[in-house]
Design goal:
Layout: E1 4-8, H1 22-29, E2 34-38, H2 47-57, E3 60-66, H3 78-97, E4 102-106, H4 121-139, E5 144-147, H5 161-171, E6 176-181, H6 182-188, H7 193-199, E7 203-207, H8 223-233, E8 238-241, H9 249-254, H10 265-282
Parallel strand pairs: 1-2, 1-8, 2-3, 3-4, 4-5, 5-6, 6-7
Helix pairs in contact: 3-4, 4-5, 7-8, 8-10
This protein binds manganese (II) ion.
Protein backbone atom coordinates (compact mmCIF):
# COMPACT_ATOMS: atom_id res chain seq x y z
CA UNK A 1 0.00 0.00 0.00
CA UNK A 2 1.50 3.35 -0.97
CA UNK A 3 2.06 6.16 1.52
CA UNK A 4 1.76 9.81 0.51
CA UNK A 5 4.70 12.15 1.07
CA UNK A 6 4.10 15.49 2.75
CA UNK A 7 6.45 18.24 3.91
CA UNK A 8 6.16 20.75 6.72
CA UNK A 9 6.11 24.38 5.54
CA UNK A 10 8.80 25.22 8.12
CA UNK A 11 11.32 23.96 5.58
CA UNK A 12 10.79 27.27 3.76
CA UNK A 13 9.06 29.72 6.07
CA UNK A 14 9.05 30.76 9.69
CA UNK A 15 5.56 32.18 9.46
CA UNK A 16 2.68 30.87 7.34
CA UNK A 17 0.49 33.54 5.67
CA UNK A 18 -0.84 34.34 2.19
CA UNK A 19 2.71 35.55 1.36
CA UNK A 20 3.86 31.93 1.51
CA UNK A 21 1.17 30.35 -0.68
CA UNK A 22 3.88 29.87 -3.34
CA UNK A 23 5.12 26.93 -1.26
CA UNK A 24 2.07 24.94 -2.40
CA UNK A 25 3.13 25.12 -6.06
CA UNK A 26 6.79 24.69 -5.15
CA UNK A 27 6.26 21.40 -3.34
CA UNK A 28 4.15 20.06 -6.20
CA UNK A 29 7.16 20.66 -8.49
CA UNK A 30 9.42 18.86 -6.01
CA UNK A 31 7.21 15.78 -6.27
CA UNK A 32 5.45 16.02 -2.91
CA UNK A 33 1.80 15.16 -2.43
CA UNK A 34 0.76 17.11 0.67
CA UNK A 35 1.66 20.18 2.74
CA UNK A 36 1.67 20.46 6.52
CA UNK A 37 0.49 23.96 7.40
CA UNK A 38 1.61 25.31 10.79
CA UNK A 39 -1.12 26.91 12.91
CA UNK A 40 1.22 28.62 15.37
CA UNK A 41 -0.05 32.03 14.18
CA UNK A 42 -3.71 31.28 13.44
CA UNK A 43 -4.68 34.86 12.64
CA UNK A 44 -2.34 34.89 9.64
CA UNK A 45 -3.83 31.69 8.21
CA UNK A 46 -6.38 32.15 5.40
CA UNK A 47 -8.00 28.72 4.97
CA UNK A 48 -9.99 29.62 1.85
CA UNK A 49 -6.85 30.79 0.04
CA UNK A 50 -4.96 27.64 1.05
CA UNK A 51 -7.83 25.42 -0.01
CA UNK A 52 -8.03 27.06 -3.45
CA UNK A 53 -4.29 26.96 -4.05
CA UNK A 54 -3.90 23.36 -2.91
CA UNK A 55 -6.89 22.24 -4.95
CA UNK A 56 -5.45 23.83 -8.09
CA UNK A 57 -2.04 22.22 -7.50
CA UNK A 58 -3.41 18.79 -6.53
CA UNK A 59 -1.76 19.03 -3.12
CA UNK A 60 -3.30 17.51 0.01
CA UNK A 61 -3.29 19.34 3.34
CA UNK A 62 -2.81 18.66 7.00
CA UNK A 63 -2.18 21.04 9.86
CA UNK A 64 -0.20 21.03 13.08
CA UNK A 65 0.90 23.10 16.02
CA UNK A 66 2.79 22.89 19.26
CA UNK A 67 0.75 24.49 22.03
CA UNK A 68 2.64 27.48 23.45
CA UNK A 69 3.48 28.41 27.02
CA UNK A 70 0.33 29.32 28.92
CA UNK A 71 -1.93 26.97 26.93
CA UNK A 72 -1.41 23.56 28.51
CA UNK A 73 -4.38 21.15 28.48
CA UNK A 74 -2.81 19.31 31.43
CA UNK A 75 -2.32 22.44 33.56
CA UNK A 76 -3.81 22.65 37.03
CA UNK A 77 -4.82 26.24 36.26
CA UNK A 78 -8.28 26.37 34.65
CA UNK A 79 -7.51 29.54 32.66
CA UNK A 80 -4.52 27.83 31.12
CA UNK A 81 -6.64 24.83 30.14
CA UNK A 82 -9.22 27.24 28.73
CA UNK A 83 -6.61 28.89 26.52
CA UNK A 84 -5.52 25.45 25.30
CA UNK A 85 -9.15 24.56 24.50
CA UNK A 86 -9.57 27.79 22.53
CA UNK A 87 -6.38 27.16 20.53
CA UNK A 88 -7.40 23.58 19.73
CA UNK A 89 -10.93 24.51 18.62
CA UNK A 90 -9.59 27.32 16.46
CA UNK A 91 -7.06 24.95 14.87
CA UNK A 92 -9.75 22.34 14.17
CA UNK A 93 -11.93 24.98 12.51
CA UNK A 94 -9.07 26.23 10.33
CA UNK A 95 -8.24 22.66 9.32
CA UNK A 96 -11.83 21.92 8.31
CA UNK A 97 -12.14 25.23 6.45
CA UNK A 98 -9.09 24.47 4.32
CA UNK A 99 -10.44 21.00 3.56
CA UNK A 100 -8.02 19.07 5.77
CA UNK A 101 -8.95 16.01 7.80
CA UNK A 102 -5.89 15.76 10.08
CA UNK A 103 -4.78 18.26 12.74
CA UNK A 104 -1.87 17.06 14.82
CA UNK A 105 1.24 17.90 16.86
CA UNK A 106 1.97 18.78 20.46
CA UNK A 107 -1.71 19.26 21.30
CA UNK A 108 -1.74 17.63 24.76
CA UNK A 109 0.63 20.02 26.56
CA UNK A 110 2.66 23.19 26.07
CA UNK A 111 5.95 22.65 24.27
CA UNK A 112 9.04 23.24 26.38
CA UNK A 113 7.10 23.34 29.66
CA UNK A 114 8.89 21.82 32.65
CA UNK A 115 7.40 20.71 35.91
CA UNK A 116 9.31 19.89 39.10
CA UNK A 117 7.91 16.38 39.54
CA UNK A 118 6.97 13.39 37.43
CA UNK A 119 3.57 13.56 35.71
CA UNK A 120 0.75 11.79 37.56
CA UNK A 121 -2.66 10.40 36.55
CA UNK A 122 -4.36 13.72 37.22
CA UNK A 123 -2.17 15.47 34.61
CA UNK A 124 -3.19 12.95 31.94
CA UNK A 125 -6.84 13.12 33.02
CA UNK A 126 -6.93 16.91 32.61
CA UNK A 127 -5.26 16.69 29.20
CA UNK A 128 -7.67 13.92 28.16
CA UNK A 129 -10.69 16.00 29.11
CA UNK A 130 -9.57 18.99 27.04
CA UNK A 131 -8.64 16.73 24.12
CA UNK A 132 -11.99 14.91 24.28
CA UNK A 133 -13.85 18.23 24.02
CA UNK A 134 -11.76 19.30 21.04
CA UNK A 135 -12.20 15.87 19.45
CA UNK A 136 -16.00 16.03 19.69
CA UNK A 137 -15.89 19.44 18.01
CA UNK A 138 -13.53 17.98 15.40
CA UNK A 139 -15.73 14.93 14.75
CA UNK A 140 -18.59 17.17 13.61
CA UNK A 141 -16.18 18.66 11.06
CA UNK A 142 -14.61 15.43 9.82
CA UNK A 143 -11.26 16.14 11.48
CA UNK A 144 -9.02 13.69 13.36
CA UNK A 145 -6.64 15.00 16.03
CA UNK A 146 -3.17 13.46 16.29
CA UNK A 147 -1.04 13.18 19.44
CA UNK A 148 2.68 13.49 18.65
CA UNK A 149 4.98 12.09 21.38
CA UNK A 150 8.06 14.29 21.71
CA UNK A 151 11.27 13.93 23.65
CA UNK A 152 11.81 14.55 27.35
CA UNK A 153 13.53 17.91 26.80
CA UNK A 154 10.49 19.34 25.05
CA UNK A 155 7.56 17.80 26.96
CA UNK A 156 7.01 16.30 30.39
CA UNK A 157 3.74 14.59 29.45
CA UNK A 158 3.97 12.35 26.34
CA UNK A 159 7.39 11.05 25.30
CA UNK A 160 6.55 7.61 23.87
CA UNK A 161 4.05 5.95 21.57
CA UNK A 162 2.80 3.90 24.51
CA UNK A 163 2.03 7.08 26.49
CA UNK A 164 0.23 8.58 23.48
CA UNK A 165 -1.88 5.45 23.05
CA UNK A 166 -2.79 5.52 26.75
CA UNK A 167 -3.77 9.21 26.58
CA UNK A 168 -5.87 8.41 23.52
CA UNK A 169 -7.66 5.65 25.46
CA UNK A 170 -8.22 8.00 28.38
CA UNK A 171 -9.79 10.64 26.13
CA UNK A 172 -12.09 7.96 24.73
CA UNK A 173 -12.85 9.62 21.40
CA UNK A 174 -12.41 7.61 18.19
CA UNK A 175 -11.13 10.58 16.16
CA UNK A 176 -8.02 10.98 18.29
CA UNK A 177 -5.00 9.32 16.71
CA UNK A 178 -1.26 9.06 17.11
CA UNK A 179 1.50 10.78 15.16
CA UNK A 180 5.04 9.38 15.09
CA UNK A 181 8.23 11.41 14.79
CA UNK A 182 11.43 9.44 14.20
CA UNK A 183 13.63 12.18 15.70
CA UNK A 184 11.84 11.85 19.04
CA UNK A 185 11.58 8.06 18.77
CA UNK A 186 15.36 7.91 18.39
CA UNK A 187 15.68 9.47 21.85
CA UNK A 188 12.82 7.81 23.70
CA UNK A 189 11.96 4.37 22.24
CA UNK A 190 13.77 1.02 22.62
CA UNK A 191 13.69 0.58 18.85
CA UNK A 192 11.83 1.86 15.80
CA UNK A 193 9.96 -1.24 14.66
CA UNK A 194 7.77 -2.29 17.61
CA UNK A 195 6.37 1.19 18.49
CA UNK A 196 5.65 1.85 14.81
CA UNK A 197 3.66 -1.38 14.46
CA UNK A 198 1.75 -0.67 17.67
CA UNK A 199 0.90 2.87 16.51
CA UNK A 200 -0.37 1.95 13.04
CA UNK A 201 -4.01 1.13 13.95
CA UNK A 202 -4.41 4.75 15.15
CA UNK A 203 -1.69 6.42 13.10
CA UNK A 204 -2.55 9.73 11.40
CA UNK A 205 0.89 11.07 10.41
CA UNK A 206 4.62 10.34 10.58
CA UNK A 207 7.38 12.93 10.78
CA UNK A 208 10.36 11.38 9.01
CA UNK A 209 13.01 13.38 10.83
CA UNK A 210 16.66 12.39 11.04
CA UNK A 211 18.44 11.90 14.38
CA UNK A 212 19.90 15.43 14.12
CA UNK A 213 16.92 16.86 12.23
CA UNK A 214 19.12 17.33 9.18
CA UNK A 215 18.88 15.58 5.81
CA UNK A 216 17.15 12.18 6.15
CA UNK A 217 19.60 9.39 5.37
CA UNK A 218 22.63 11.14 6.86
CA UNK A 219 22.00 10.35 10.54
CA UNK A 220 21.45 7.31 12.71
CA UNK A 221 17.69 6.66 12.43
CA UNK A 222 16.98 3.01 11.53
CA UNK A 223 14.92 3.81 8.44
CA UNK A 224 14.59 0.17 7.43
CA UNK A 225 12.86 -0.59 10.76
CA UNK A 226 10.58 2.44 10.39
CA UNK A 227 9.33 1.51 6.93
CA UNK A 228 9.19 -2.21 7.73
CA UNK A 229 6.99 -1.32 10.72
CA UNK A 230 4.70 0.85 8.59
CA UNK A 231 4.43 -1.88 5.95
CA UNK A 232 3.86 -4.73 8.42
CA UNK A 233 1.25 -2.65 10.25
CA UNK A 234 -0.54 -1.94 6.95
CA UNK A 235 -0.19 1.87 7.03
CA UNK A 236 -1.30 3.72 3.91
CA UNK A 237 -1.62 7.30 5.14
CA UNK A 238 0.70 10.29 5.07
CA UNK A 239 4.35 10.50 5.98
CA UNK A 240 6.19 13.79 5.95
CA UNK A 241 9.51 15.54 6.08
CA UNK A 242 9.86 17.89 9.02
CA UNK A 243 12.82 20.10 9.60
CA UNK A 244 13.24 23.60 10.88
CA UNK A 245 15.54 25.17 8.30
CA UNK A 246 13.49 28.37 8.20
CA UNK A 247 11.45 28.04 11.39
CA UNK A 248 11.02 31.09 13.58
CA UNK A 249 13.72 31.85 16.15
CA UNK A 250 11.21 30.90 18.87
CA UNK A 251 10.51 27.54 17.26
CA UNK A 252 14.23 26.88 16.75
CA UNK A 253 14.85 27.67 20.41
CA UNK A 254 11.94 25.45 21.51
CA UNK A 255 13.41 22.57 19.50
CA UNK A 256 17.03 23.29 20.54
CA UNK A 257 18.35 23.92 17.07
CA UNK A 258 21.44 26.11 17.25
CA UNK A 259 23.19 25.39 13.97
CA UNK A 260 22.25 25.05 10.29
CA UNK A 261 20.81 21.61 9.53
CA UNK A 262 21.26 21.65 5.77
CA UNK A 263 22.80 23.92 3.12
CA UNK A 264 19.31 25.12 2.16
CA UNK A 265 15.67 24.05 2.26
CA UNK A 266 15.44 22.67 -1.28
CA UNK A 267 18.55 20.53 -0.77
CA UNK A 268 17.17 19.07 2.44
CA UNK A 269 13.83 18.25 0.83
CA UNK A 270 15.19 16.98 -2.51
CA UNK A 271 17.89 14.76 -1.01
CA UNK A 272 15.72 13.67 1.90
CA UNK A 273 12.74 12.82 -0.27
CA UNK A 274 14.84 10.80 -2.73
CA UNK A 275 16.36 8.83 0.14
CA UNK A 276 13.04 8.26 1.94
CA UNK A 277 11.20 7.21 -1.21
CA UNK A 278 13.91 4.66 -1.83
CA UNK A 279 13.68 3.33 1.73
CA UNK A 280 9.88 3.20 1.52
CA UNK A 281 9.96 1.45 -1.87
CA UNK A 282 12.04 -1.36 -0.37
CA UNK A 283 8.98 -2.23 1.71
CA UNK A 284 6.38 -1.79 -1.02
CA UNK A 285 5.18 1.58 0.31
CA UNK A 286 5.63 3.54 -2.94
CA UNK A 287 3.13 3.20 -5.79
MN1 LIG B 1 7.58 16.35 14.68
Amino acid sequence: MPVRFAVHAYAWTSSWSNDTLWIVDHIAKLGLEALEVPLMEPRLVDPAAIRARAGAAGIGLLTSLALPEGADPAAEDADERGRARTRLIEAVDLTAEMGGTVFTGVVYSAIGKRIDRRPVDADYERAAEVLAGAARHAAERGVTIGLEPINRYESYLVNTVDQALRLRELAGEPNIGVHLDTYHMNIEEDDFYAPTVSAVPHLVHVHLSESHRGIPGRGTVDWDAVFRGLADGGYDGMVGLESFVEASEAMKAATYIWRPLAPDSDTLVREGLAFLRGAAATHGLVA
